[in-house]
Design brief:
Chain lengths: ~200, ~190
Amino acid sequence: MSRLNRRDALRALLCEREKVIVVTGLGSPAYDLASCGNEPLDFPLWGAMGGAAMVGLGLALAQPEYKVLVLTGDGEMLMGLGSLATIAAQRPSNLRIVVMDNERFGETGQQHTHTAASTDLAAVAAGCGFQHIRTIRLASELEPLRVDLHALDDLLFAVVKVSPEELPRVLPPRDGAYLTHRLRAALLGAELALEA
Amino acid sequence: MRITDESLAAHPQQHVQQWAEGVYELFKAHHVDLISFVPDGGHKHLIAYCQSDPALRTVTLTTEEEGIALAAGAFLGGKRSALLMQSSGVGNCINMLSLPRVCNMPFLALVTMRGEWGEFNPWQVPMGQSTPVILEASGVIVYRADSVEEVCPTVEAAIMLAFQSRRSVVVLLSQKLIGAKNFTRGDK
């Protein structure tokens, strides 16, 4: 069975995105998001490996009116597995975590990750207490997930099994202060964004 | 040898509660209302104050660096956060400290010290010794409180510096202040 193309999958999930904040883990998910455009509600990380889901939790708690999508890879998620326990205990209803799982460390030479060997991230999320979990292997399963990203009033975790093929890099801005100010201005307004 | 010398605990319990309440009131006054922690005995009363207030959100972490990423997300959304932890967790934080640094975000942590004043457990000593050096090498501004009287003014200055100047600031709460953990009395 052929694996999903990660960028086709993301484009499908971000269709009619509207007020969804997207935080990405470093590497391929950040390039995938950049391949879809460059929006004020985008917050691509270029480092802080293992921290994407927790950045999403902070945003979700601070901005309950917005949906927050954490888009990350299997390698980044594996480095922050404990954060799944922390997040499930908080259960913010507006947070969604989607792992684009290619079973590889894509930035460092395509070495296999633990999901290639034995780890099922969806089962880890279930063990941490997530109530809404999806594992997506087919293109036809993306639209129901997209609907859930907007409509579900509860914490959601999804693994999208994607092809390990290497795609051309599309780089998002990498000035952290700029990305921070851009998102804060979009959420808080230009004046408040300059305050503490 | 029994390590039960009361003098190791420099300050009696009511003083511990006194600074804890003062810090809690500073959090309230400065709108620091998302409090994350990996628990430490020295933070026990402060954690209890924060958890008893429905206006504060408390987040129990599995490891300290989660609190840095959480604070970054909170700041992006317009909320102030603080991390409570002990010095043995500082090593877990080094790479994640790059997040507030490169993004020009505030970060505030109160770190109770282990491995210094009267320490019983040798496994705590290396990280206790390394804590201020590692933090400073990671770009963090380090304050320290050695007495009950110093805690609130130091924490307030740290809050102002962190949030108004958008810097990473840590207040070390010395083991002299907290009291050495006593393993022979069953204290937590």
